User: Fold these one by one.
Assistant:
Number 1:
Amino acid sequence: GGKNGPADYEMKVVTEGFEKSGSLPGSDGPPPEAVLYVNGLPPDCEDVDLYRLFNPFGAIVPKGVKVMMTPDGKCRGYGFVNFLEVESAQAAIEIFNGTYLPDGSTLHVKVKSQSGNAPNYWGSSGGGFGGGGGGGSAAAA
């Protein structure tokens, strides 16, 4: 395809190329203080839901949102959000941590503790976010 015809490549190839090249901001991973652990998520939570909640606070590194799933595709109740800047992470913590959810449980958001054997959820490996999905709303306490 040329200028006027359909492209003969997939956008996914372009996106992955930029991510792997290291030329995108945050490609080398987020600052440790900008990696958030989010707990209290419902079973139907997906990466895109966390992305929609946290993205308004600031830039998220490439593939920087990951909901941990069971083998049958349900959320395990927690996930991670990797911001480009510490200030964005702190703002998200201030708004979301301690929020009461519709079932009476509480959303917990904090900086991920640093342990030597923790998996790495950013960079060229790990999950990203997809399209679609819905979201609920939670009223802050």
Number 2:
Amino acid sequence: DKQYLFVSQAWNSAMVMGGVIQFFAGWFFDRVGGRVTAVTAASLVALGLLMLQIPLLGAQGGSDVHTHSWLFVALLFANTGAEMGGKAGMATVWHLPAHQTFASALVMCAPYVTGFLPMLISAFMHSTALPLSSIMQAWVVLVILAGV
């Protein structure tokens, strides 16, 4: 299916760019510290998830021809925030001297865990018959509530 290939390509491209952005995230962390990096990271993830509503609502309303280009931009913002959040997570390693290896491993595996999200969403869509836009809108609400 053409739409599935486009979404996969956008997701993979944003993940590759997220890897490239690690350089910027490390530089930013060294300049401003863990706390500012964490706040910036959370803001970028929230902004990316909000921007993701544009292509999802466009697909739901049948106008995805006009809104599909927002998918890559939204994923890029969210992945940049995720990479920056990983760098901010490294600041916790120094505060947990008895658990440095575990904290470091947790931070390092976090970006790869997001690869499971599309599989979980797909399984949830098949079991509930809900459209992708509804699931992602609920996800955005959960992320925002988790930040409050």
